[in-house]
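hi! just following up on the protien thing from before. the input was this:
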Amino acid sequence: MNNSTNRFMEWLVRGLAVLAGTGALGTVDLGLGLAHPLVILLAVTVALVASRLSGTALGVGALVLGAAMLAATTGLQAGAASGVRQALPFGLTVVAVALLVIGLTAWRAAPKPTAFALPLLLAGLVLQPLRMSSDKMSLVVFALVLALAGVVTAGTGLWVRTIQISRRRGEMARQLAQRTSIASDLHDYVAHHVTGIVVLAQAAQSVAAQQPQAVLPALQRIEQAGDEAMTAIRRMVTLLREAGAEARLSPLGTISDIASLTEHFTSADGMRVGLSVEGDFDDVPIDVQSAVHRVVTEALTNVRKHAEGVRELEILVGRDMRFDMVTVEVANDGRSRGGHSSEGGYGLAGLRERAEALGGSFVAGPRSEGGWRVQARIPAGGA
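and the predicted 3d structure came back as:
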């Protein structure tokens, strides 16, 4: 609908500009003696220039034109009342130009001048019949026709302006949502990789003296995590620099990827990581699988950042066929290093919003038997 309304407005403007600018109406005006040649020339000039003006210049020009039309019409009426014969200042060309300027002004002129220019232009247009006939019925009919044409043209311009404003606001909202998604990806992907690099480096230092052979694999995994983090950062910068870029920071994680995710989470401190995946997830949409993957990613990242003394970590992923829900739970037996609550930071807040957007629920908090639990339930079919 947006494109069709724009095309209609452009067609209307071009049609009026052609009628006024080619001199066809001016020839009729001269033949019928409706307007002075100088007035026709000025009107044709306005028709050729108006569509090329900026929003501010168009608004100011429309304001000046409206005031001039109104002053000329009222001045002519005063002259006719006093018996003074005046040259007819208006004609078909000026009517077409007035409608052209009304449409352009309502469509894309600066808002402040538009508020004053449109009433003046409409008044100057409607009052034109004052100089054409002494027959009151003819005056009323012609004035109503001009008023209808002016209101329709102005309404069409304002309608198209409103649609364009709505489209721009929608585009701004989409860009804001995209940037919010980038911030979430920054936390979920880059922060996870960087945290893993730090942990691996610490583990390598702790085992370097007793187990030198374990240092090389740790360094290789540090290199891999660094490469992945740099790739994510480069893609994120691309999204920020290029308007309308739709590339993802990295491929969406799925439930089947959770196994490899836990393999990268091993450490040299004896932590036991258990993973249980039960159910068929082949028909589960990618957004649901990605949400489950992110729950596990965020939970593992928070274990590294906020927990200590963790000996066991259990990851349970299943599908409740009774309610057709995908459930994920990550629990550990560690203790908090302080400053971490059930409200969580940006990561937990993002997971809660994502789960609720898909029609599910998300909870995170301490366990009664000690440790911490993160749990989410999401409909298998998505929102």
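The first strand starts at residue 272 and ends at 278.
The chain is about 65% helix and 10% strand.
cheers
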